[in-house]
Design goal:
- The structure is a single chain.
- This protein has one domain.
- It has eleven helices and no strands.
- The chain has helices spanning about 10-15, 20-25, 30-50, 55-70, 80-85, 95-105, 115-135, 140-155, 160-170, 185-200, 210-220.
- The radius of gyration is 16 Å and the shape is globular.
- Residues about 1-10 have low confidence and may be disordered.
């Protein structure tokens, strides 16, 4: 599988990725950067679809479009969608992208979402990251990815009950036996920054996050 890091869609894809995530992606080895960029852009794109201010039925229809697209061979995907073009190298591993869609669909509903729905959403994102690791030969990452997804929900959820439920799940989640491998180094950085922010009840980007990113990126700690 080969990802073109310098393709014409790079700027469009980067526009979807927030600065803290871009910082984490800087720690990906060169051969993995385009894959990471496309994955995180898709994660953000799907998150935007389930915005509570939007009509739930419309969100489900749009998520269904992505799910149906990923069910088909990449050669049959619609042309003209930059994100799909960037995701084509997933090939037969594209089923993991459906897990990401399913995860975000679990977030559709009136607040506060049930604990089981928050857990399902985190599991879907973790499964998709495990698929990315498979594409990049990055090793086992499911436990770390699940913790990152829950911490990310804590940081970004606006409903206090949902935040509390996500935090309870995070505290109960098993710690990973080891950090992610070299190709999945951005996950080490994301998890370190996001869990710190979740436990301190603040957004990512606070004092100390840069140092934490450097430590996780280079030392895996």
């Amino acid at each position: 599988m080969s990802f073109d890091e310098n393709g014409p869609t790079t700027a469009q894809i980067d526009a979807l990725i927030p600065p803290p995530v871009r910082l984490a992606l800087a720690y990906a080895p060169r051969h993995a950067r385009a894959a990471w960029r496309a994955f995180m852009a898709l994660d953000r794109r799907l998150a935007q679809l389930i915005d509570p201010s939007r009509e739930p039925m419309l969100a489900q229809m749009r998520l269904a479009w992505w799910r149906e697209t990923f069910a088909r061979p990449a050669a049959e995907w619609p042309a003209g969608e930059p994100l799909l073009a960037a995701l084509r190298p997933w090939g037969e591993a594209r089923g993991a992208l459906t897990e990401l869609v399913d995860g975000w669909e679990a977030m559709i509903g009136d607040a506060p979402l049930a604990t089981v729905d928050i857990a399902a959403a985190a599991q879907g994102r973790a499964a998709a990251l495990a698929g990315l690791s498979q594409v990049l030969n990055g090793g086992a990452v499911s436990a770390l990815a699940y913790r990152w997804a829950l911490a990310d929900f804590v940081v970004h959820m606006g409903d206090e009950t949902e935040r509390s439920r996500a935090m309870t799940l995070l505290r109960a989640a098993p710690a990973p036996e080891r950090r992610a491998g070299r190709a999945m180094r951005p996950l080490n950085v994301l998890a370190a920054m996001t869990e710190r922010a979740a436990h301190e009840n603040r957004p990512i980007g606070g004092a100390g996050d840069f140092a934490r990113a450097v430590r996780a990126g280079w030392l895996g700690a």
